[in-house]
Amino acid sequence: MTGPLPAAILNRWAREQARLKGGVVREDTEEWQKEPSFAGLERVGGVDLSYIKGDESRACASLVVLSYPGLEVLYEDCRMVTVSAPYVAGFLAFREVPFLVEAVQRLQQEEPRLKPQVLLVDGNGLLHHRGFGVACHLGVLTDLPCVGVAKNLLQVDGLARDELHREQIRSLQREGDMFPLTGTSGSVLGMALRSCNSSKPLYISVGHRVCLETAVRLVQSCCRYRIPEPIRQADIRSREYIRKQMCSPVKVPSYGPERAPCPRLGEVTGDLICFRHP
Length: 278
Known about the structure:
Blueprint: H1 7-21, E1 43-52, E2 55-67, E3 73-83, H2 92-110, E4 118-122, H3 134-142, E5 146-150, H4 163-170, E6 178-182, E7 188-193, E8 202-208, H5 212-221, H6 229-245, E9 254-255, E10 272-276
Parallel strand pairs: 1-4, 3-9, 4-5
Antiparallel strand pairs: 1-2, 2-3, 3-10, 5-8, 6-7, 7-8
């Protein structure tokens, strides 16, 4: 679809977000989350969509599962997809989440023993215009604990990339330093964290079935570099898959703005690459 989306579609998307938002759980729900060392956590997932340069309609949707705490890749699933819904600020989930839900469904059907116990999502959770970002959306639809990890600050509820914010970033001197992202409403929407070897913070927010403190600790424990390893590996592998596919056209599934956000497994066909690592 070209041009701005009709108001009717945007209104329907907003209503769907409001409906699903009622299912978000902002607290820890798993036993491993209560342990200081996350004892019992064995598998952490990461998801990402990488777009073909110069073509915002073709992308590779990637899901990886890493061991924990070793952070070795156990499983990866990369699929070329056609993204029909345009990018609209605040509605990224309707553009990307259907493909990520399908990836989780495939994993649950084909390799249930490798099902991740938590997903790290390249995007925001409660730190969102309507308090329901892509990490919340994916979490509610898959019923998996999810954490939003963004590379840039989403300016909502009075949060701004202003001099005060830049001064707060400069105060992050050591790995693990952080400060809360408190909106003008008084709500703490997330946390800015200095991870590994970078002066640029990550912006972490609750997605589903995890509290903010646990989300921050988990992300920090998954960082070998600035970006936590599950998301980093999903990004690396999706980009490599695109590179390999550029010379050979593939059939790709497509979702438009009118398509339901959660098709059942098997409704869409396309080329799939799926690796299981011993």
